[in-house]
Amino acid sequence: KRPEPVSRGLFSWIPAVLRVPDTDIIQQSGLDTYMFLRSIRTMFIMFAVISIASAASILPVNVKGTMELTGLNSLSMGNVDPRSNWLWVHIGFFAAIVWWSLWNIVGELRIYTHLRMWWLTHPNTVSKAGASTVLVSNVPKSLANDESRLRDLFSMFPGGIRQVFVNRMCKKLTRNVHTRDKLVKRLEKELTKYAIKCKKLWSKSQDTNSPYRPPTRPTTRKSWNIFAKVDLFEHLAAEIAKCNRFIAKSANNMDSMERQSSALVMFNQQVGAHMAAQTVLDYRPFSMGQVTAGVNPDDIIWSNLEISPWSRRIRGYVTFAITVGLTLLWTIIAAALSSLVQVKSLANFEAFKWLRGNSVVLGIFSGVVPSFVLALLMSVLPYILRLLLYIEGTTTRSQIKLRMLHRLFFFQTWNVYLVTIFSSSIFQIAVKSVSEPGKIVELIQTQVPQSATNILTYVLLLAFIGAAKEIVQGVPLALRYLVPKLFAKTPRMMLKAEQPQNFKWEAAIPTHSLIFLMGFSYSFIAPIVNWFVMVYFGLFYLIYRYQFL
Hints:
By secondary structure, the protein is of the alpha+beta class. It has helices at residues 13-19, 22-29, 31-56, 58-63, 87-120, 123-126, 141-144, 147-154, 171-208, 232-251, 270-277, 309-340, 343-347, 359-367, 369-392, 397-421, 423-435, 440-447, 452-472, 474-486, 491-498, 505-521, 528-547, and strands at residues 133-137, 161-168, 219-222, 225-231, 259-267, 290-293. The strands form 2 sheets. A 4-stranded antiparallel beta sheet has the order 2-5-1-6, with helices on one face. A two-stranded antiparallel sheet has the order 3-4. A hairpin with a 2-residue loop joins strand 3 (219-222) and strand 4 (225-231). The chain is globular and about 95 Å long. The termini are close together.
């Protein structure tokens, strides 16, 4: 159901969304969305308090420092003499914000625990079949082939079991279902084209007062007789009926299909399903070691259920090693591509000698192309990580999103924070400490705060450009109107094209977590960072709260 407009004013939506009760957000978008919003709000409150406290404590100490730094560096800890006793103020401030942050995190975890218990026991959740169903992977062949033993195993949980579904090897059935879906889409497309053509001829006959004559129905050739033409509509309908007969026949003969090493177990009580998900079901390694509660059939990746546990574990090691290698090599790849598109590098190649002396083209290549290439490179990364997790054998799409979230955060922490922003200070410390190793502590105290300017630039870029991009939704809005006009040829395709896009949790959460990491690590080194991080989380909280209503 489309929600009612919050407000029609240019800025009146801000107080309007803040007045909406949290219960409405939970009912409209679910508990996951509400907890995501609550985490953004918590980080905003944390940095609001930290910003005020730093302005009243360590910022005056930094301003009155004796190191005579200029610009934003004069507001950082680097402006304080390393031998000064005023540095104890920074240590005390950092200890206080660590306690403040842990207090907020523990409090939010308690609230989440209570809300999750309330959500799981809510009548709307309990009434769903998925609430009391678990997906069991890596079931031994002895249990998969003997359904009575499998029932006895799970009957020990409270309430007993309602039904057990052992998954079957049905590749031929799957191919027929996919074939039928393709035929249905083609039939809908051809019927829509024919209906539009009929409408045009009917309108033309009405304008000219001539008798209406329906257009010729489209024809096609059979695969086994290319010389005989048949009616396309009747041919597609016959092929769909043929697929339906095979699907119905296969559904009535499921026992003849080979059993897979996975099963769906439906319990009579929800507590039984959750106890089964938390129980060690077999003493053998990896046997029935992956039990997922609250599953949705649309969320299951059925092709990955048959992968053996040993193969899945080996694939996991391989894909994790590829992810680590990709993370380490991404900096080199980005640097190579960035240098490759520089004008001086391109002009050295014989194929690009025409660039020499061309100021217009040189300006485009030096200003636009490097940023475009790096942005394109970063946009490909989520698809690579998602493909690796799929190859690994992950059984549900939700698990792919969750694990992709972790790996993307690891990647961004290394390449954006440690390499791109923090590496300049580390490099200068390493170079200067070679000649003066005794001053390495002093170099850390003077060089690390200078990286705060890079963090400020990055946070400001995401706070204003990222927030503006999020609230305008330019690309999704354009696709919302262009795709139905250019590519949607049937009512079903138009309905699908007009549906709103899903929120990219796996991309948003790592970015916000990275900003929190940057702000917290520099909260006592460069207190001016706290204010920009506070503005960042404040803007995104307002935008997300408006979007999720």
